Amino acid sequence: MRDTMVKINDRYEFPLQLDLDRDDGKYLAPDADRSIRNLYTLHSVLVHSGGVHGGHYYAFIRPTLADKWYKFDDERVTKEDTKKAFEDQYGGEEEELPQINPGFNNTPFKFTKYSNAYMLVYIRESDKEKIMCNVDESQIRLKKEQEEKEHKKKEKAEAHLYTIIKIARDEDLKEQTGKDIYFDLVDHEKVRSFRIQKQLPFSTFKEEVAKEYGIPVQFQRFWLWAKRQNHTYRPNRPLNPHEETQSVGQLREISNKAQNAELKLFLEVEICSLFLLLRRAKKIFFFSSNCTIPKKKCFVKALGKPSDILRKLTEMAGIKFEPKVMCEHIDKKLTFRASQLEDGDIVCFQKSPKADSGTQVRYPDVPSFLEYVHNRQVVHFRSLEKPKDDEFCLELSHI
């Protein structure tokens, strides 16, 4: 047989006790500690049943190193004798006698065994007490995973009774911009989620929001999100007083035609005087000057024009604005509706870059900055002991 992978099923015997000090310790590594008695006792046998192209794994384990062996085969655990767990896993050929019938050849025949030991685990006698000690709850790593599994199972069974409300705030918008590859106003997978009973009045939920964020109910204004044709989300309209008197379940059905348990809201926090302005304003835009100044909001009229707010934009950005520095090709004479600018759209503008700015600034203009964000990949490194905490992060690029 040549150029073919095969599983070797030759007979290979292994001892119940392994003495590595024999023959003057010739089986030990050169730097091994020879002051310790290197006598090992077999603890477990991992068995593979099958061929090179497939098969099944199971294990024989002695939990206390006594003569009691247990077979762990998927979800089945059975008690086995020493011969089956030990000698029967040597592999090789096994001799078997057929049933004795007159007139038939009763010569014993041999057949190859396809179940044999794959890996052996030995424990040094001097370390037995340290390894085979009692295990407390803090050392059972799977207990927390099991509790989380049971919690998710319970949530799934009670899902029809609850609505998931995802609240996005100004802080989420600031966190989103320039931080991730996700190109949208906000990533709803990262915002604060509330699991609320459908029968709970929305007014009661606002009180819970007040406790969570420290924002008085009278200063809370919630906007519904709408999904656009390009699969992005924008704040569409504020909740009216009648809608806020309804239950959470009724509000979810009104706001979302899709049959899911989520209600996406944007929480605006303003003083009372600006609430009066909102009654007249029909659009909200979030402006950024190449991510070098704090993000600010500007309320505009739906039939207004970009040229109407140029002066206000320059005051917000603190720059001397000239028409030629507009990086986005927007016709200032058209209305916002004609330009297909909707709630939450981001308008980027900047100072005209100098000739030598490319050597001083890493991303001198908006296109180069967005290309950097698009190709960026942040790699998170975590330890096994703290799988949810980042040890450090490394920023890489796809190009």
Automatic annotation (TrEMBL):
Name this protein carries in UniProt: USP domain-containing protein
InterPro entries linked to this entry: Papain-like_cys_pep_sf, Peptidase_C19, Peptidase_C19_UCH, USP, USP7_ICP0-binding_dom, USP_CS
Family membership noted in the UniProt record: Belongs to the peptidase C19 family.
Keywords, sorted A to Z: Coiled coil, Ubl conjugation pathway
Coiled-coil stretches noted in the UniProt entry, renumbered to this chain: 128-155
Residue spans crossing the bilayer: none
GO molecular function: cysteine-type deubiquitinase activity
Family annotation (PROSITE patterns): USP_2, USP_3
Originating species: Triticum turgidum subsp. durum (Durum wheat)
Alphabetized SUPFAM superfamilies for the sequence: Cysteine proteinases
Domain USP: 1-125
Gene3D superfamilies assigned: Cysteine proteinases (3.90.70.10), Phosphatidylinositol 3-kinase Catalytic Subunit, Chain A, domain 1 (3.10.20.90)
Record-level GO cellular component terms: cytosol; nucleus
One biological process term in Gene Ontology: protein deubiquitination
Entry-linked Pfam families: UCH, USP7_ICP0_bdg
